[in-house]
Every structure is written in structure tokens, then in C-alpha cells.
Write a structure and sequence with these properties.
The structure is a homodimer of 456-residue chains. The first copy, chain A, is mainly alpha-helical and 456 residues long. Chain A folds into 3 domains: 7-137, MgtE N-terminal domain-like (MgtE N-terminal fold, Alpha Horseshoe); 150-249, CBS-domain; 277-455, Orthogonal Bundle (Tetracycline Repressor, domain 2), CATH 1.10.357. The first copy, chain A, is built from 22 helices and 6 strands. Chain A has a 3-stranded mixed sheet. In chain A, helix 7 (87-94) crosses helix 9, helix 20 runs antiparallel to helix 21 and helix 21 (393-421) packs antiparallel against helix 22 (430-455). Chain A is elongated, with a radius of gyration of 29 Å. The termini of chain A are far apart. Chains A and B meet through helix 1, helix 12, helix 13, helix 15 and helix 16 of A and helix 1, helix 12, helix 13, helix 15 and helix 16 of B.
Chain lengths: 456, 456
């Protein structure tokens, strides 16, 4: 545990660093980099120019420092700072990275450079790195660590403790994984059990045999859910033949949970799923947001078409236009509420995708309760607000609000479930999809109700 | 590690349990409860009736099973299943709970019953429980565990290992915390360092002295952020005099991160912050969602007032009404994008609250880029869509979309920052606030632009 600085001190570190960079006080910068936790350095690098980011990386006093900094940096910064590093320097830094980080970083380079780097890294690591790179993105195989403590089931406790003592320093070793002669995972022993057992016992006598494991292709989100649900500290990863391949540790699960939540937040708002969007230029930013805005634009144009269709009604009763925003507004909001509850429920396991009918029914009920309440309120006050005395205007507006809210909850709750069942991420554009659909439905309903009640 | 069942098997467990409950096959239920991981039991209990929830709890074979189940249950279910348990039975179950869970559960009862239960729990635990209960909700003090492994700095390695062996089984012991004679925290030793150090050495010779700690009042979200950022496995909690009080472990941090993300999701959609909303009745559900809908209702009524004000303009150019949805729709969506990026950035530390001006400027730029692009598209097609040949109609609509989107990004990015600076949770109703504000501004701008360009 290296002492980390407190968040109030981050801005001090940032301004000091900026001042030293301006003055080109490179020796001082190196000194600070030696003493500062790399997580803090990574944090302040986000707000520096690309030139300064590269400068800071190159001023790290040793390859070990560079490696620790790479572990903490955002992906898009890693690419930039390594751009002009030689393969030799990269292979030096790689000696201090675990195989998983090596695989992630190599994966960022074009294929030709990947091969060059792979030939320069340590032979022991090469196979592991290539193995991890072969698994699909965001799978258990791609996020697992190969640096694990495994022993054969016939090893004695005494030998095991000796082996542990000669194992490289690593405070993420929570369990000793026990394998049979074919490297299949047969059990697990906690370090504490190991220390408190008789020296002469064999691992197979003290190990727990009932263990859960992920396969290499298990989605990282599923791994995270399991670790969280059962309070595990690590989950082993095995292949189809139950051969032990690695583990996903709880500190990586913390990162996975944060990343997945961020992606869901961004996707629900229709901003793509790039967590590093804040580091992107305004143009790149606009590009990844444009498609979702287009969805709502098309929806808005459909609504315009519907309203144009009811042109003659609107000419007769111009006040109807005034209530368009409130009708689509409340519908959109209550629909967003429903879809958010369902999307988050699906992500945390609170919503069971196999049993969604009661949920949609309940949302429909909530929508109609709110619809009755607010339909009555707005309906009764509509005539007062506009100052127009027209029989049934309140009825039209109240009824439209009721229908809009009721349908909005049903649509809001159903869209994520349908997306999930079709194999899409339910968070994908639930927001824009839902609000756009509700805009169109709300406007259409409103004018149909108005023409039915007011014209006859 | 008790073998947990896979998610595909959860529905099988649920249907089996429901069948056995209908048949009152209580012996069989007890048998299943003995073999099933309590996290899975807690999961299926969510979808059972209140009567069946109580039945299952009462059929748990031992007090230990009941305790393990309580650890996994949602708060609102804990209250229900314990409602009719006697204080004696509760105190029996409590023997198997750590002091933090005891404090949380006791806190759910009315004050009079709290005292009764407190008198019945073990004397050793009583002080700890009362201490934890005295800290504010969601503070480091309220989530810390008191079951830690601490020793005086003058203890030898040999003695320490002996003490560790006699310590109750607990796989969440990652570090040995080292205290001075006044119980102040002076260092930390990893179990691995302990096992690999010479027997005769004293703890103060092998401990790491640079350690970071939280105070009892530190917000749990801050604790989680630190643990995630620095890859800690646990963070010690101390009082103002640096006296060691307990630790927050990484498995609790996993829960905190998930809970805080869920709360932010719900708050941003304006559904309150009750993570257990899915367990609530439709009426309770509608009640917690009603206030945020009211916000958008009031916004909608303001918009109605604005539109009514421009009544004569609208009578002349009725086609203006058709484009109300698209103008407030794209504004609302792009504003939600901005506020989501900022809210999530504040939560994960990617947005620095002290340096927000460049961020808002950038969002403004993104808004204007998107505004120009989509303003041109909609502006040029407006006349075609409506089939109306009117000079400058396209200009009005295009310009309104541009203004609406530009202002929406500025509002969307600023509201969460302002809320944060005022000491509110930025996620609170960012969604409803932002969309409502943008509805009003968008409509007003649209009609001002229209009357300026089209009337003169």
C-alpha cells in the first residue's frame, strides 16, 4: 500500500505539474513522479495536452514506474503515450505487467506491430498473452489473470507453504487452486486454512471441492454479478474440459462493475458506449451522439406529419397546439422512469427476464394511477390556463394525458425486455427509442381523441 | 465457497419451491434450504408472496442458516420476515451476524424494540453495534466491519501467526492492522508478508507505515472510489485521534458501487432513490414517481402558457404547431446526453468539479455542431414535409433547432454541476429538471424566432 493523496490534493498536484511542465523542470517532475501514486498521475493526465501527457510518461524514472502508470491509464491515453516508444522499450516495460495487461495493450496496436512486440516479450509470458488475446472482448477469458497460485492435489501443506513463500509478491492471492494430474480444477484452499492445517496433510484432504467456475466465454458482466452475489474474492476460469486457465479477481470485478454501469448510463442516454467520451474532441463527440439524435429527429418529423394531417382540426381549435408539449412531456418522463427501472433491474438481476408479464402489468397500473391523477389535475385546470371557455376541452386533455401516461409505462417497460430477448443490450438507446416512440404515440392519440370528442 | 447454482437453475429452484409451498411439504423445503446458497434463496424470495417469504424464513433449519439468509435479503424483506420473531430468537440469530449487520437490522426496528434486542445480544458485541448505529447513514462508520485482525506493533511474527490461527474463520482478512499502545493505527502487514518474514521480527519492523484511512464520517461513495482507484482490498476507518475503529472491505465496496449506481440511475430518471422500488406496490410506486412527473407537468403548463401567448401568430401560420415536438424532442435528447455524461463523470471522478468551464464550453460546441447539422437537415426538408410553400419557414425551423440544441447542451451540462456545488446529489432529478427546462426554453425560442422572422 503506497500512500495515496487525498482528492483535495489532486488539484494541487495538477497545478504543480502544469507549472513544472511550462518551466520544463524535468528533474523536479521525475522526483514528483517517483513519490506519487500512479493512480493519481493517471487522473491528472486526463486534463493535460497530448504533448504533456507524452512528456510525463517519458519522465517516469524507471520502466517499473511506466508499467504501473500504464495499469492506471485510460485506453485512449495508453495508445497515445506508447505511440513513439520503441519495441525494445515496450518489452522492457512489459516485464512488470501481468499477462492480462500485456494482452490488452498489445491488442491496441496494428497487427504488424503486435507480432514485433510479441517476439520481444518473455517466452513464458508469450503463450499466456496470445491465449488471452484469442478470447472475445469482455469475456471471462479476456479479463482473467494468469498469475495464480496453483498446486497439485497431492502436495502436502508443508510443501505448499514453502511454495507460497517463494511465489512472487502479490497481495491478490486469495486462494490456492488445487489441480489434478491433468491440470483440471478439483478444489480450492484458503490461505488461512493452509496456515492452520497440519503440515503432513495433503491438499486434497483439506480443499473445498464444491466450486463454481466461469468458462472462457462467460460475459464479464455475468462474472461480476456472480462475484457480487456470492461474495467471492475471485472466480476461477476453466475450459470445456474443466482445465484451470486463470482467475478473475474481485479488484477487477470492481472495475468491471463501474465500467458496465458507465456504459449503461451512456447508452441509455444515447451517447454510444465509449466511457472515455470526455477525452474525445467535440467532433468525435458529436459523431458518436449524432445517430441517437437522428432517431428522435425522425420521430419528431413523424409527429409533424401527424399534426399536419390534423391541420383543419387545429385551425378550428388552435388552443390544442398549446398542450402538445405537456402531453408528450409527461408521457416521455413516465416512460423513461419505467424503462430505467427495467434496464437497471435486468442489469442487477432484480428483473427476471423469464417472468416479465407481471412487471409490465404493474408498470401499466402505475401509469394509469399517475394518469388518472394528473389527467384530472390538468384537465380541470386546462380551461382556466387558456382562458378559453370550451366544453369538453378539459376532457380531451385529461383523457389524452391519461392514455399517454398509461401507454408510456407499457412501452417503457417493454422495450428493454424485447431488446434483451432479441439478444441486444437492453440499455442500447432505450432512452431515445422510448421517448421517440412515446412522442409519436402521444401526439397521435391526442389528435384522435380531440377529433373524436370535439368534432362530433 | 459453497457451491452456488447457475442462473438457468434459478427458475427451476423457484418453481420447485413454489410447488412445495403449495403442497406444504415443509420437510422437503427445509432440506432444500440446507443445501442451497442463501444468495439464491434470497433471489427467489423476491418473487414470492409475503406469506411464503415468512414461511421460508421460518423453515430455515438452524439459526445459522437464518443469519446467512438475512445477510443476503433486501432490507424491506428483512423487516417483514423478522416482524413476528421473538427477541430471543432474534438474539440467537444475531450470534452469527457480524456487528455491522446486527446494527443495520436493529436500526430497522422502532426504538423501543431496539433497546429490547440490544439488551439480549452478546455483551462484547453490544458496544460495537451501538457505535456503528451512532454514525450517519452511508458513512464509512456505518458500513465498516469491526471484525478485524489487529495486533500491537511490538508483537513478534511468531506470536502473530499463532494469533491468526486462533482467530475465527474469516476469508475477508486481507491485512493485519498494526496499532500502538494507544490503539492508534501505525501500520499494516499483508498476510503473505507475515508468513514469509522471520519469526523473531516484530511487526513494527515489517509493517508498511504509509497508509490511507477514511474517517467515520467519510461518505461511503468516497470510500468506494478510493478502493477502486487505488486497488485496495480494504480501507481502515479511524477517528480524529487516528484511533483504529474498523475496516471497509472490498466485497462491501462491490455492493456500495452497485447500490450507488442503481440510485443514480433511478434518480436521474426521477424515480426517487429506492433501489427496492420493484418490490413496492403500484400505489407506493406511483407515490415515489409522482413528484418528478409533477415537475414536467408544471414545465408543460408553462410551455402551454407561452404557446397561448403567441396565439395570433399560430392562427396565421398554423404549420408552426407541427414542429413543436421535434424542436423540444431533439433539445431534450441532446440535453439528456450532456447531463448524463456529466453526472456519470462526477460519480466516477472523470469530471473535476473544480474545473468545469472547459467542459461546459465543449458541450456547447458539440451542441452547436449537432445543431448546425440537424438544423440544416430539418430546415431544408421542412417545406417539403408540410407541402407548404412559405419563404423563411425552413430558416425559422432550422435556426430554432440549432438554438434549442446549443442551449440544451449548456443547460444539460450545467445543471448537475450547479446541483453538485450547492451540495445536492447531481443525479437528483437531473433528468426531469433538464428536460423540463429545455422544453420551456425551446418553445419560447421557437416562437420568438418565428415571430421575428415571419412577421416582419
Amino acid at each position: 500500500m503506497k500512500k495515496a493523496i487525498f482528492s483535495t490534493e489532486i488539484s494541487l498536484l495538477r497545478s504543480t505539474m502544469q507549472r513544472l511542465l511550462r518551466r520544463r523542470a524535468h528533474t523536479n517532475i521525475s522526483k514528483i513522479l517517483r513519490k506519487t501514486h500512479q493512480a493519481d498521475v493517471a487522473l491528472i493526465m486526463r486534463s493535460l495536452s497530448q504533448y504533456d501527457q507524452k512528456k510525463i510518461f517519458s519522465l517516469c524514472p524507471t520502466s517499473l514506474h511506466k508499467a504501473r502508470l500504464l495499469e492506471e491509464l485510460d485506453d485512449s491515453l495508453i495508445e497515445k503515450v506508447l505511440e513513439h516508444e520503441s519495441e525494445k522499450s515496450i518489452s522492457k516495460i512489459f516485464r512488470y505487467l501481468d499477462t492480462n495487461d500485456q494482452a490488452t495493450i498489445i491488442g491496441m496496436f496494428p497487427e504488424s506491430k503486435q507480432q514485433e512486440i510479441l517476439t520481444k516479450i518473455e517466452v513464458d509470458d508469450k503463450d499466456d498473452v496470445e491465449e488471452i488475446m484469442s478470447y472475445p472482448d469482455d469475456s471471462a477469458g479476456s479479463v482473467m489473470t494468469k498469475e495464480t497460485f496453483t498446486l497439485n492435489q497431492n502436495t502436502t501443506v508443508k510443501e505448499s507453504i514453502k511454495k507460497l513463500q517463494s511465489f512472487p509478491e502479490n497481495d491478490k492471492i486469495f486462494y490456492l487452486y488445487v489441480l489434478d494430474n491433468k491440470e483440471k480444477l478439483v478444489g480450492v484452499v484458503s490461505l488461512r486454512t493452509l496456515v492452520t492445517s497440519k503440515n503432513s496433510k495433503k491438499l486434497k484432504e483439506i480443499m473445498i471441492k464444491d466450486i463454481q467456475a466461469a468458462s472462457t466465454s462467460t460475459d464479464q458482466e455475468e462474472v461480476a454479478k456472480k462475484v457480487a452475489q456470492y461474495n467471492y474474492l475471485a472466480l476461477p476460469v476453466v475450459n470445456r474440459q474443466n482445465k484451470f486457465l486463470g482467475i478473475v479477481t474481485i479488484d477487477d470485478v470492481v472495475d468491471i462493475i463501474r465500467e458496465e454501469a458507465s456504459e449503461d448510463f451512456l447508452q441509455m442516454a444515447g451517447v454510444g458506449k465509449d466511457r472515455e467520451i470526455l477525452l474525445k474532441s467535440p467532433i468525435e463527440n458529436a459523431q458518436s451522439r449524432a445517430p441517437w439524435i437522428l432517431a428522435s429527429l425522425i420521430g419528431g418529423i413523424c409527429a409533424a406529419g401527424i399534426i399536419s394531417y390534423f391541420n383543419s382540426l387545429l385551425e378550428q381549435i388552435i388552443v390544442l397546439a398549446a398542450f402538445i408539449p405537456v402531453i408528450i412531456g409527461v408521457g416521455g418522463n413516465v416512460g423513461t422512469q419505467s424503462s430505467t427501472i427495467v434496464v437497471r433491474g435486468l442489469a442487477t438481476g432484480r428483473v427476471d427476464a423469464a417472468n416479465t408479464f407481471p412487471l409490465i402489468l404493474k408498470e401499466l397500473l402505475v401509469g394509469s394511477i399517475l394518469g388518472v391523477a394528473y389527467g384530472l389535475v390538468v384537465g380541470f385546470t386546462a380551461e382556466y390556463i387558456t382562458g378559453i371557455d370550451m366544453s369538453n376541452l378539459g376532457l380531451v386533455i385529461g383523457l389524452s394525458i391519461f392514455c399517454s401516461m398509461t401507454i408510456a409505462t407499457a412501452v417503457g417497460a417493454s422495450v428493454p425486455i424485447v431488446l434483451k430477448k432479441l439478444g441486444f443490450d437492453p440499455a442500447i438507446s432505450t432512452g431515445p427509442f422510448v421517448t421517440t416512440a412515446i412522442d409519436i404515440i402521444g401526439v397521435a392519440l391526442y389528435f384522435v381523441i380531440a377529433s373524436t370528442i370535439l368534432i362530433n
